[in-house]
Every structure is written in C-alpha cells, then in structure tokens.
Amino acid sequence: AQKITQTQPGMFVQEKEAVTLDCTYDTSDQSYGLFWYKQPSSGEMIFLIYQGSYDEQNATEGRYSLNFQKARKSANLVISASQLGDSAMYFCAMREGIEYDMRFGAGTRLTVKP
Amino acid sequence: GAGVSQTPSNKVTEKGKYVELRCDPISGHTALYWYRQSLGQGPEFLIYFQGTGAADDSGLPNDRFFAVRPEGSVSTLKIQRTERGDSAVYLCASSLTGGDGYTFGSGTRLTVV
After folding, report:
1. Which of A102, A103, A109 would you mutate first to test chain B, the one with the most B CBs within 10 A?
2. From the centroid of its chain, how far is CA B96?
3. B-chain residues within 8 Å CB-CB of A45?
C-alpha cells in the first residue's frame, strides 16, 4: 500500500513567491518521522527538513517550513521567497515507529520561473 | 570519508551479466541503506544494514539481488543475471545510528542493454 502520496507531479512558481508542495501519509504508528529531500538535476539527495510525530510545533529551516497537520496526516513543505536554484524534484518520506528505513513518495518537480 | 561514496558512477552492462555496485559510507556510520530510483520515480527501499547484518532486506525485488557488508563499513550490492528492468540509479545512504537523518551518495546509474 502507498504510504506516502504526493499528488502534484509538477508545480510552477514565480521567483520570490512562496509555494506549497503537498504530502499525505498513511501509518498506524503513533511514533514516526517525516522528511523532505530535494533532488536537483545532478541527482544528489539533499535533506531539507524533519518533523517528528510528537513535535508540537511545525519544523522550520531557513526558507523551508513544514505544515504538519497530524489529524489530516499531511506534511506539506512550504518554500518561501523561491529562488531559481530551488528548481528540482522534491520528495516527501516517512520513517515509522522503530523502523529505521525510510519510504519515499513519487516526488514533485518544482520549476521556478524568473 | 567526508561523504558517502558510490562507485562506479555509471555502469553499462549486457543483459544476463553480473554486476557489483559499491558503497563506502561516512566513517563511523553504523546504518547503511540501499535504494533504487527509476526514472521519474521516488527512491524505492531495497535493504538496510545495521553493522554487518541486514536488518531489513524486504525491499530486494527477487533472489537475483544480494547485498553484503562484511566488516560493517563498505557495502556491495550484487545483481545476478541482469535484466533491462534493472536499469535505474542505485542510491546508497548512511546514518550514524539508524535513528537519525540519512546522508546519500551520488548514486550509480546502471544501464542494462
């Protein structure tokens, strides 16, 4: 069963504007972690932000924030003040309970327009 | 090392051949993961090592795939009797204990012709 769902195959945003990338997840565990990674065309996977299921506040890292809505099982990534260098694939991932392996969604390709 | 190193960066092989892909994790990282990423898709979990042992190999697609980590550092992913459907980027990641974040390597692009 699909555990991580990213419903937006592609997104466009104007430079300097904010954009939200959607992610919903499915788990029966009470303890889990949610991650966002960026993958530029070079192929490397770059860790952006992490949210633990027990964290009461939304995670933030610079221009990245995670809009965590536990009841809706959503963990959307918000990028503020988009830059041309933000153009890349973005993957949402989840690690459940005591498991250490991470499962990824299909990704969203973000294109920032000048 | 400073980062996760994967070799080769590219591998082209003929259908039916055997290939080995190598991953050298960050020094001291006990957890090591292999993923496969097909074009346009997210990484698909293959196997996870904690130390020398495979803690979870549930993602290996079939018995043609095998991975080892004999000394708890370098890992080798082995694919026998390669098929065209095995063509993908194979990503390796490591983490300090397993419960923290991953650092990914740059991947090995495998092409089976």
Report:
1. A102
2. 17
3. 43, 91, 93, 102, 104
